Amino acid sequence: MSKNVKEQVLTILNMHKGEYKSGEELASGIGVSRTAVWKAINTLREQGFNIQGSTKSGYILSQDTDILDKEAVSSSLSPEARGFYEIECVKEIDSTNDELKRRAFSCEKEGLTVIAESQTKGKGRRGRSFFSPDDTGLYLSVLLRPNLSVEDSVLITTLASVAGAKAVEAVNSSLKPGDVKIKWVNDLFLRNKKISGILTEGNISIETGRLDYAVLGIGFNIEPPKDSWPSDIEKTAGSIFDKKAPAGTRNALSAAFLDAFFYYYKKLPELSYLDEYRARQISMNKEVRVITGATERKAKCVGVNDRCELLVRFEGDTEDTALNSGEISIKL
Q: Which of 98, 217, 245, 300 has the highest CB neighbour count under 10 A?
């Protein structure tokens, strides 16, 4: 079964979701035999796609199907962003970040993007796993080759958090600008629940001391999982939609994020997103615990400086400290 035929059949059915397409139409449009189309349809059904068939009418993809499709994502990008990204969509993968790290060593160019419906080994910060179930989330990674120092690599994560917040508000019409908050440095919150996490990984050039490449990964909880949240995150996890998300949300969310990310990324080292990053901070003027390695200290968040470092006042201190690593814990 040619992967290309299968992808093309799925793209056409997805573009005409809820409409019948005859085997002859599909075969003619792709330039293959009707037998090849029939084999593609059967393979797609085996992969879980709800495709109904009728001898008289042809094939139809269920109206409520929400599948990833690179053409649907790409066509929604701005022309400049479309030229930057090379998009691949998969149903399942071990980790989108790990896949791009493997391919970074094969001289793949900047902009390669892998988007998945589920991950079997999703990764979070500090070696944690990232809950990545099928059907209810979106997991995306972008290969970058920025001219940045290791110290400035945090800018990738911070601009991604703003892009992610704007993308969420773009796909959920019930939200208004500013509803999605950011917990320094890499988490997105909606109604005091975590809906997204960001992980940036990279490789350092020994010769220059700068980034050889970076992989920016982001995962979104689109809707509540079918079997409830795992016990360790059930009190903190949330989703973009409280119930079933509208069909097409994955493609729309992918495009909205990639467009917003590219808009800010192309302007680096200018921090064109800094004001918004500051305004969305959920921990501002709140008491937090700063976690560095195995140590924790109480502090109060007082601001974000011009390098996107979090400014905190540790308990007992008289001066502010700028954090460029570690993480914070806050009760919401």
A: 217
What is the distance between the alpha carbons of residues 98 and 215, in angstroms, rounded to a whole number?
A: 9
Identity at 263, one-letter amino acid code: Y
State the helix-helix crossing angle for 154-171 and 249-265, rounded to 10 degrees: 140
Largest Cα–Cα separation, the chain: 79
Domain with CATH 1.10.10.10 in the chain: 3-61
- Which strands make up the sheet holding 295-304, listed edge to edge? 321-323, 310-314, 295-304, 287-292, 327-329
For residue 219, what are the CA distances in angstroms to 67, 142, 148, 214, 247?
A: 16, 12, 24, 17, 18
Q: Which helix (H) or strand (E) holds 97?
A: helix 96-104
Q: What is the pLDDT of residues 190-200, one digit of tens each?
A: 999 999 999 99
Q: Does domain 287-329 have CATH number 1.25.40?
A: no
- Whether the CA torsion 218, 134, 122, 188 is positive or negative: it is positive
Q: Encode pLDDT of 139-186 as tens digits.
A: 999 999 998 888 888 899 999 999 999 999 999 999 999 999 999 988
CA distances (Å), origin 117, targets 2, 66, 77, 105, 163 = 21, 10, 20, 25, 20
Residue 187's identity, in one-letter code, is D
Distance between start and end Cα atoms, the chain: 51
The residue length of the chain stands at 332
Type of residue numbered 319 = E
Looking at domain 3-61, its CATH architecture is: Orthogonal Bundle (1.10)
Q: Is the peptide bond before 269 cis (omega within 30 degrees of 0)?
A: yes
| 8 A C-beta contact, residue 121 and residue 98 | yes
